[in-house]
Amino acid sequence: MGRPADRLFGTLDLLILRALAxxxxxxxxxxxxxxxxxxxxxxxxxxxxxYPALHRMExxxxxxxxxxxxxxxxxxxxxxxxxxxxxxxxxxEADWLRHVDAVARVLRTx
Amino acid sequence: MSFLTRFFNLFRRDALNREFEDELxxxxxxxxxxxxxxxxxxxxxxxxAHQEFGNLTRAKQGMQEVRVMRTSVAVAALxxxxxxxxxxxxxxxxxxxxxxxxxxxxxxxxxxxxxxxVIRERKPDxxxxxxxxxxxxxIVMECIVQPTGICDxxxxxxxxxxxxxxxEAIRAIQEWRFRPGTRMGEPVPVKVNVEFSFTLR
Lengths: 110, 201
Prior knowledge:
The complex is a heterodimer of chains A (110) and B (201).
Chain A: H1 12-20, E1 26-27, H2 28-38, H3 50-59, E2 63-69, E3 75-81, H4 83-109
Antiparallel strand pairs in A: 1-3, 2-3
Helix pairs in contact in A: 1-2, 1-4
Chain B: H1 2-9, H2 13-37, H3 42-53, H4 56-67, H5 71-95, E1 106-107, E2 113-114, E3 117-120, H6 128-132, E4 137-145, E5 151-158, H7 165-174, E6 177-179, E7 182-183, E8 186-187, E9 190-198
Parallel strand pairs in B: 1-9
Antiparallel strand pairs in B: 2-7, 3-6, 4-5, 4-9, 7-8
Helix pairs in contact in B: 2-3, 2-4
């Protein structure tokens, strides 16, 4: 935490769930790329920190995973979002938007 | 569920670690391939991929922490589960009467005890000597109705005439026969009170 490499402001769970929200089955590498690309490289992190988060989120039953063969014919672990994960995503999105809105309000008035 | 999985994962840590390593090296190797495709040398690509990935060991530890229960937690859980099982077993055994010494006798009114009933009684003799001495009144005796139906261990609770009528009363009660009291379907010793009245006419 607090490393300059992480500029996610504690939104890692939200970003992972969002990356999987359209129902895709992705391995960690693709999830990282999707977050990077969608944020135009603004949201970056140590890629390694993604994996404990993925496993924690699977323990929480927001994700499920299975081993499968990747496009380049190698064994990889693939993640999908669960129904519980979708509900959690909605909650996180709402929380985040309210948070950003509140910060913006403070910046305007202060 | 997750608690149990994390507990049992303690016993397959090696297999899990290999899985974690496979998952992480898939990521790093793919990153290296991409960098090489983009024109880097193998050495450059590896250095860059590792820098982007960060500390591999820390990532693996992070995964272990999530997936595998800490040994101390597992030990604590095992201890509390076995304490619960032991306590449960103990209470269950006690409830079936195991380890509870059976009392020498039960009292009428004890839980689960049906009282004895009289099958045959005999009136005590009222000796002439006592009549002439105009001794009258009542004697109360305590005795224990045994599973055999005999009342023994007779004690005088309320005496009237220690050398005369008390003895007659004891002799009489010893000839009484009872259907014994029971507990859980078994005949058991039960203490009873019997009162005899001696009345002059």
